[in-house]
Amino acid sequence: MMRLLGRVCCSKELKLLQxxxxxxxxxxxxxxxxxxxxxxxxxxxWSPQAQFAGYYVALEKGIYVRHGIDLKILPAGxxxxxxxxxxNGGADFAILWLTTALRQRADGTQLVNLAQLVQRSSLLLISxxxxxxxxxxxxxxxxxxxxxxxxxxxxxxxFARQGIKVRELPQSYTVxxxxxxxxxxxxxxxxxxxxxxxSSGVDADELSVISLHEQxxxxxxDGIYTLEKTLKKDPALAKAFVAASLExxxxxxxxxxxxxEIVIKQxxxxxxxxxxxxxxxxxxxxxxxxxxxxxxxxxxxxNQQEYEAVGQAMRSYGLLKAYPDYSRFTGRSDxxxx
Length: 338
Known about the structure:
The chain is an alpha/beta fold. Helix content is about 45%, strand content about 15%.
């Protein structure tokens, strides 16, 4: 009899617990439904590719929605300027290099860094060994292809430090001029053009590669930026956007096949050629660049010492008259990293 009463009591308690949990779920669902998603826009630095996989993955997998954001990723690439779009209010967030952001601040646009995804330079200067180039000093008087705008600032600072003068030639968005012998040295990103050169049939042993990072030009690249007024207006949105973006990157690195499918889908929608092997190389290299390599490393954090070094270098070579204090420039750079 006692055992039977015990089972009855447990049954009643279990049913009560189940009803309580159901009620809590209903209340939570109602609370979510009562909170409309915040609309926001992002402009990447370039056309869809694995360089921006984390953002596309976060969008496709509903990560932004889960963080309360209805995000639209804007078209980017040739003809688009993320810094100008951000300045004009056409985007809430943009992906920019640190050098670009500092120049914009100097020109009066109150940009703030919310998160620093790529924390070092991945820019390379590539030549063929049969050209006799082995070191930076060997670049003196050589034909060097440089991209337009702020992408040329790091190599120019390196040339100035080394006291050499090169014959600068404008470089397009491809490495065709280099492959055809029109220039002796080409600019290349480790995660992109370097692999393109290898895929063209040139063996790695045939190349002389100068890494700007290894030459002491430790300039952080892709970072998430917004306007100071946008941050002040809705700091919770900025924090949620960074948290969702970092989560998107982690998901992309943990599920590379899914990430590649999402990226290729975006590329095809933009009518861009999509080479899976190349995009895989890019995603692997982005993992190397983005994910912390030490226990103390923090994903998304702009290092103050490196920030100061870039600001001082740009000022020393007449590219800036001044740069803002780290605390003002970073805004909430640690949002989403804790």
